[in-house]
Predict the 3D structure of the following.
Amino acid sequence: FRSVTFRNCTSLISEEDADHPHHPHSHDQEEEELYNYMERGATTSASSSSPPNRRSFEFQDEITSTGGSSPRLNKFHSHPDATGCWSYLWCNWCPINPPKRLPWSRISSAIVRNAPCFWWCASPLETSATDRAVLYRLNILCAVFAAVQAAVGIFLSIVLIAYPSTNNNSIYGGEEGVLPRSSDSSTYITDFAEGRINIWELNIMLYVIAVVSGVLFVIMICTLRVIRQVNILGAVRYMWALYWIIPIHIFLVISLFDYHRVTNVWVRHWWTSPTMDWIRTLFCEDDTANAECMVPIMGGEDFDTEDEWCLFNFNSTNCTDIRGDAEMDSKTLFYFFYTVNGIWGALLVLLSNHN
């Protein structure tokens, strides 16, 4: 075994001599040192009166392994196999050693110590904090993330469902051009029938996420007492609650990434519906949100083209351009809004898994 190992090591040394000719004597000295180490180990193991040389045996174990963290010992390795090839290349070509896998407890501690919502605390969390303190603050952080997602769903339901609508009287026979919608409850029912809520677009996912995040927020807040009291039964209930809620949340978060561009179709065909009242007010030109900006696709039922519709109602031909610019800006906002909420939900899932 010793002769085979020595032969492999010397072959590697000779190969490195060919690659580095500017060090003619360094590898000869290392070869001699290696031989002395191995002879010393063999002599020590054969002797029964003296204790074994621990350093020599460790050295032999290290030079016969396929990987290691010492740059000096790596040069004596035999040629690595498929499993040790990447480790061999990393140790010889990377200026630093291969990174070790960090434990989840250290990652969680780093998260709760550097989260912006904890910067105002008078007593910041120490590096050597207990697992209970880390878990307590991690639950608070998850509750903050869940509360934000619930608030987003409430905001979206206000601006898309409960926002006061307006009717364009120049289109429907009025005289003033724009009049506010009546507060009669029957008008709200008519608006819902016209399409205030549409399940074939991504907003319905945000509504469901808001409900799930609200439940998750309550769970996180109630678990704070469980953590303080170290309640085993409460911890088991908390675990099962996460096991049921997190998969649903993951499914909804994945649905927020619009792979099939459903938002384009929704904005295009629902542009004149009451759902888009606030969006038109936000992106259309002044005083056109319920006028020129509401030009129907291809002129609607009574006209052949959009220009004919615009000429008949407003004596103009720029309605299509006004609507197109507003639709483009609204699509950009919706895609940004959905993507940010998807990333936020993914972070909430990761933080919940750290619990």
